[in-house]
Amino acid sequence: MPLASLTRRQLLQGAAATTALPWLTASAAVGGGKPISLVVSYPAGGGADLMARLIAPRVSEALGQPVVVENRPGASGTLAAQHVARSTPDGTTLLLDASSFAVNPSLFPKLPYETATAFAPLAVLALYPNVLVCTPAFEAKTVADVIRLARAKPKTIAYASSGNGSAQHLAGALFEDLAKVELVHVPYRGGGPAMNDVMGGQVPLFFANVASSLGHIQSGRLRPLAVTARLRSRALPDVPTMEQVGVKGHEVLEWNPVLAPAGTPQPVRAELAAAIRKAMNDPEVLGRVRTLGGDVFPGNEEAASKFLKEQQALWSRVVRERGITSG
After folding, report:
1. DSSP alpha helices (H): ranges in the chain?
2. Spatial contact of 162 and 188, defined as CB atoms under 8 Å apart
3. d(C-alpha 197, C-alpha 206), whole Å
4. Which of 10, 41, 150, 314 could lock onto 77 through a cystine, CB 3.0 to 4.6 A?
5. pLDDT at residue 253 above 80?
6. Tens digits of per-residue pLDDT, 32-91?
7. 106/122 Cα distance (integer angstroms)
């Protein structure tokens, strides 16, 4: 009888341990179940913050532990990156950045961290194309018209951006490089003022975010010429890609990477990456991303790491060859 009782107790304990195993595995792998800080490199209300708050509760549910969004804006995202790079590499402090992560090493040669070695990429959340738009009164009706006019009168056609070194600035610089034209860059303090002046006719061209420009395109206040992705945007199915209008290689995407500090153990990285992928495949998240004109990044953490290296190489070349500075 004692032996039978002992065996029964052992079986019950074993069953309980097996039932709890998924939760215990997750919390043990990620900082022992402590809250995870998802550090966002830009202010509340922006695109990076939107993605953080969209996935945080779903990542929390997948891991079985709290995920708290923490905004640390400033210095083009480098303040947040520095904080995460110096954090304990146990998976409880993560960086959610923007596409500027791949550009900053070229714009700011004296960063307080080494981008290539200070982080362990976990995921790229989604890919959002830009769209080249113009004021309706502009004489160019197509990208071919823009190129023809720009070649006939170099340095006379202007394009707006949200600032030096911004995604819009880089999109314009790459367009100049690939189309063999010379435009005039007009930097603004933010995308809103730039968009307003394009709609007002002060500047003819702007590489706009699809989500922020869609309403103005639909109302007729902006004319779309081409999207900066390999495939047409679901939000603008009638607008051709740059590739389709003859500007080969002009792919400029906005995206949000999630990174852990270098030295985070592989089992922890795998646990976090799986939770992020699960969050991004949630139907509500998928729907929101597509509403904003984007697509969920299709790859795993290895694909994300490869993508980041390719983006850093691309923008390093563009920044160097075009002499772009942050000032």
Report:
1. 2-29, 47-63, 78-85, 104-107, 115-118, 143-152, 167-179, 191-200, 210-219, 266-280, 283-291, 301-322
2. yes
3. 10
4. 41
5. yes
6. 889 999 999 998 988 899 999 999 999 999 999 999 999 999 988 999 999 999 999 999
7. 22
